[in-house]
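User: Teach me something about this protein's shape.
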Amino acid sequence: MDRFRSTEQAHFSALVASHIREQDGPLLLEGGTGLGKTRAYLAALANSGLSVAIVLPTHQLIDQLAASADRAAVGLEVTAFRPAARFERRADYLAARDAAMAGRVMLCTAASVIIDQRLRGGYNGATARDYILFDEADQLPQAAALQRDLTITAEDLKAAGIPRGDMRPTLEALLAARHVPPEVRARALIIQEALSEPAWRHKAGPDDDGGIALFHHLPGRLLKPIANRGNVAFVSATLSIAGTFDDFRRSLGIGAISRFSGRIEPAKHGALRVETPVGADPVDIVMAAEKPCLVAMASHQEAEVLAARLPGAVARAPDETTAEAARSVPPNGTLIAAGAWAGLDTPIRWASIVIPRIPFERPQVLDDKIESRYIDSRNVAVRRMRQVVGRGLRTPDADCAIYILDERYERLGQFLPDRFQQSWAEGARTEVTLSEAERDKAIRRAALKRYGCKCHACGLVPPHPSIIEVHHLNPIAEGERKTKLEDVIPLCANCHRLAHTRRPAPIPLAELQAMAQAEK
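Assistant: First, the predicted structure itself:
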């Protein structure tokens, strides 16, 4: 049986395989949502025979990959490295670490790779492997989890017997102390390194809890020593911004890249319909949207406010993932989730996705100054929008409607997959543009949501929506064309038939309204 489902997936795998053989610089390879990049790179790794580290952002994603059908399909055995904090006994940690390091393919997190590099391969040996592949690499520029990893707590200092004093001497004393956990030692080394590179760090200093913390503009630069190796690959569905890797390279400090780098989109995979009812009440949009519906919120606070207005909707709790929360959503239900663009795939095939607010990063304020750059915030928003749109394209026959209620979408530029970009542009980004000349049911749904479920000639508000029809102001019989919302209007069955008693052009809406008024 052919292990690849498309020529694009096979091409993706071939590029990884070519890079494994030549290792001519870091590989940056984007596989559009629906391509199946995971199976593609796993197949290349399985055939390589090399010792490999597959690096993922979280332990949940490690669990998902280890249990995936893609891994089983290519016959690749993997082991997972876990930090000492996940074990009750140190002996159990050491045994698990040794087992993970002995495996040909080890799964680990980016944080462990950073630590291993600073400890010269003495943590989990990830940086000493023949090949290192970072999956979901789009999350590396922010590396939000590393903020927590780069805090040396007051408890860490107390355990080492070091009183907190001036920062540099405290760090030196910590590094000279014996029996310091490797994670803490690596954090101290990273903070020292950051102090010597003011071009990308902000500052290091005492935090409010009595420890030492590193605050930095580009945390992805922590990977710079590894990111420029020839035996490293970065893969994701959202590596590029505006068709280039420039932002990703800048964020990680990457110089020249492999000649096998590039972007591959599936030629056909799923269908999207995009509407931009800017300023609309999210409740109205969600109530009318096809179910199941995912509402991607920018914060938990906003999610709670909206959930209170939508009885029966499932709201993701701060201590659960979007995938976990989705398990509680019925087939005709709604999930309201902060950060819905990140994390594991959900078990639900979404019929609609509502985005009330574009997920720009909040400005970072340090020393009473806003330190964020707009361009960085915008690029984060572009990646997040691409990720959340991808939630609706997980299967080849997926059919999803996207509703964007925030006018700032116009500032982002391209964030839809390439195969949908042309129709989006033709719709001027303000209208629903449909490529079918037939009476697509999507036209009806969009029209009723925009204009309301009533007849716009006689004013009838029916007891059931099925009584209302959608009338083409310019007859569809004129030929195949793209249809926008401004081309249609809801009418009751009687007024719709009346409109088409005049040919070839139907009776204009204003005349229909006058006729209905005269009969009252």
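Now, about its shape. The chain is about 35% helix and 15% strand. The radius of gyration is 27 Å. If you'd like, I can walk through any region in more detail.
User: That's plenty for now, thanks!
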